Amino acid sequence: MLLKKPQLHPRTPTQRRMVALHDRSGDGSGMREEESIKHYTDAECQTLFASLFPAGFAGKDVLNEMAPEGWPDSTLHFIFHPTLEQLHWERVQLHHNLQNWPWISKDRLDEPEPTLEETRADYQDSPIDTTREVRELVAMCLWDVFSNENDVVDPDGRLVHIGSWRGAAGFLAEQLNRETAEREYDYMHFYMGSFWVSERADLTPVYEMIFRRLKDRLLDWRYRLPRMHLIEFPSDRPDGRRSYELEKMRAELEQAHREAMDDLKHKPVPAIVIAYNNIYGVFPRGWPPWEFNERDD
After folding, report:
1. pLDDT per position as a tens digit, 121-140
2. What are phi and psi for residue 236, nearest 5 degrees?
3. H helix intervals, 147-226
4. What element of type H or E holds 153?
């Protein structure tokens, strides 16, 4: 299920000059143009997050909601301590996904699938660090909620916009840097949220904790199925090959989006949507995306 978008690495220097990732239609900031003037300021976002997490991302109140049985006994700790079998499965899946990536270089198509022995040789667990693990998992899931093309909206229709994909990750990193009084995190720690680890445990309790706090402050959430777009950089000279490659890539991305939508119809409802339904009592606006798009068209 193509719910999140990896960074696009075109195959040729020409393609790299021609295209870039674009989060959503508009200016690339992650907001639609008609809503760009109705969003929280940076100061308002920081004030909101301080009220959402008065004891920090890893406060006792947060932990009690997410893992009342205790962090070591919660399945959520597997996010940071995967089993050997889980880690190997992830490596195999990544290998297959890369093999199917339209822009993978041809010399990588013959790379063999990783073996269990290779994974075992690299496997090394670490001691549980409850505070660090809880705050980092909360930050990942906050990225899923506030970014990833989704919207958090107040009763007046104003967006709680903490930045684009990279900007939102940077905002969350700075929140934790202030919380820990150290320069420990940057945007790369939380870019793409829980994408790389979401198969290790059911994240519904984390999302429920977040949505419960949003609901208490009369904030709502809107779902969108992410998609990739191309940005064409201006050129002073006509270039038939350039135009052909752009059109081909647009068609491939559109096909990938249609396939992702079709796949989603046959997959379980995402944990983030289930959590919203558990807290708000209804499905979020935008779910299911195929029906929502049809109603809007």
Report:
1. 998 889 999 999 999 999 99
2. -80, -15
3. 165-180, 204-216
4. strand 151-153
